[in-house]
Specification:
By secondary structure, this protein is mainly α. It is 67% helix and 3% strand. The chain crosses the membrane at residues 90-112, 132-157, 184-201, 237-258, 270-292.
Amino acid sequence: MYISNAWPGFWRVAVFTLALLVGLGVAQPVLAQADPAGEAATAVPALDADTWRLVRSGETGANFRDSRAGSNYNLVNASGERWRQLRNRWVSPFGLIAIGGMIVVIALFYLVIGRKDLSEPRTGRKLLRWPLVVRAIHWTVASLFIVLALTGLNLLYGKFVFRSLFGDGFWAAMMSGTKLIHNYLGPLFGILLIVLLARVLKHNWPKKHDLAWFKKGGGMVGKTHVDAGFANGGEKVWFWLLATAGIVVIASGFVLDFPNYGQGRDTMQWANLIHAVGALGLTAVALGHIYIGTIGTEGALEGMTTGYVDETWARDHHNLWYEEVKDEAIPEEQLAAGGKPSGGGEEPTPRSG
């Protein structure tokens, strides 16, 4: 009875001993591979300060080259740091100064000088200024401009406001949507802006009387009336800003939106800076344009909403154009009843510029 009880214990010890021996035999190769001395002999040496200086200075050795997507840039791209410094130290402050300064100027102008009212009561006779197709394109472009300006400002400054207020989760989702909107609406805005500029180009060629308009500050210097054709000097400046700086912003935006036409990182970085500076500057000037075209000038908004302006407004702000088209004026009552001015009302006369 004693011998039968001892055998199970003996077999347990035997099996355990055999398993231990097998385990030690299998572990020997693994332990040999994990030998610290062996690893040190084949490992890449630590990158010291001298190595990083070589990388940063432009060393083109295979160990320092970034080969992703055919890139020829070093592991440390010094131009990226230059772009970051220009963006954060110059472009961002410029935007705050330009836009914030324009808001302050507009507020002071409104408080000190106030709205530009009509010099005489309205006559009740209307002149066609903007046909429907121009108004439709204008409001589409204006709406897209506002959306792009807000999303662009959010991309540049949003992290300093919304991230601290709502946290990383909300801010990340907001930025993802902002980038999507900005990137997809940008090309549409660019195409429609070019169409609008081409449509109103004939009204915006410089004329001699524009110099007098600028000398008198658009009528704010002195008491004499300043001559203006279909477009005054200020409106022409806004047009040519859009036709120059605006086209640059559009072109740089296309470079950023479609990074698959061979442009390298340097090109993308400069396009980003040019795009930001141009867009911020145009946004600041656009605030002045919006103010003058809405609450700053009595009757100005009517021309771009209804297409028609009162005779008094035309005489006050575009007297040379008024003299050419005054015979086409139509009573407000007739217009409300569906009447049309002579000539079909398709396009205002542009002869005076």
